[in-house]
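Intended use. Records like the one below are meant for learning the mapping from a protein sequence to its folded structure. Do not use them to infer anything beyond what is encoded.
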Amino acid sequence: MDKVLVTNASFAKYSKRAEEILQDYGLEIIRVKQPVTGENDLLGQLDDVVAIITGLEPVTGKVINSAPRLRVIVKHGIGVDNIDLDAAKEKGVIVANSPGTNREAVADLVFGLMLSLARKIPQSDRQVREGKWPKVFGQSVWGKTLGIIGLGVIGKSVAQRAKGFNMKVLAFDKYWDEEFASANGIIRSEVDEILKESDFVTLHVPLMEETRNLIGEKQLSIMKPTAYLINAARGGVVDEDALYKALKEGRIAGAGIDVFSTEPPTQSPLLGLQNVILTPHMGGFTDGALSMTSEFVSQVVVDALKGREIRSRIV
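Structure written out for the chain above:
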């Protein structure tokens, strides 16, 4: 029987329909024992696998080449930097992702981080639990300037929320959507201008060579000392050593980080700072977003095996 290897625990967590789509096509679902720490956790289970559904787990060239019948790999999310695209292409394996399915969940988290940073909510919670009753002075979010670097599907959802906070929105995107920008009052800006003018900067770009360390020491030096940086995109987009120095020296007010260059970030110096909020790559982890993503990737698997066009195809 043809099998689908599922490497991430979040697939079909809230949606029976996602599994039914695969089973109705006659596929057997094989789940990898969690947690997956490396490629060795996937090897030895690949003989009858025609599809892999993966989250952040490493789908390396060795994994791909050890699956003789593999035809499609689908990312339960957006970024595909954990998949060896060259190996997949060489073997003729389709690689696709699930863009837009977690857009609202990630945008919600961005605003959660923004509000938590501005109003010092985590620190205040800790102090009250310690029996303290401090006067906590924060910053307003209402009416401030938000800079969005990457006005794709998630960036657009963030921008729409900003309207409810009466924020001025500056944005940059390589593929500019003028119709959306005009309809939502978004000002097209270059990255340096966004960094210089914004009270909050949020990143929504994929990780690739041109975006790796997009925000480094030079870019952080442009930001206001009262500004906050939020990264719920990909870890490698920010130079974490440079961010640590900027935060420690008070050159920016704070940061909200959901993604890291190494996950979990057990050795990151950011763990020792109080002016940064760190979350465990949870942007897309809501019941609604996970259900939508799981059903989407299941349908992609079936469509790929049927030879249909895959709009979210990467390779």
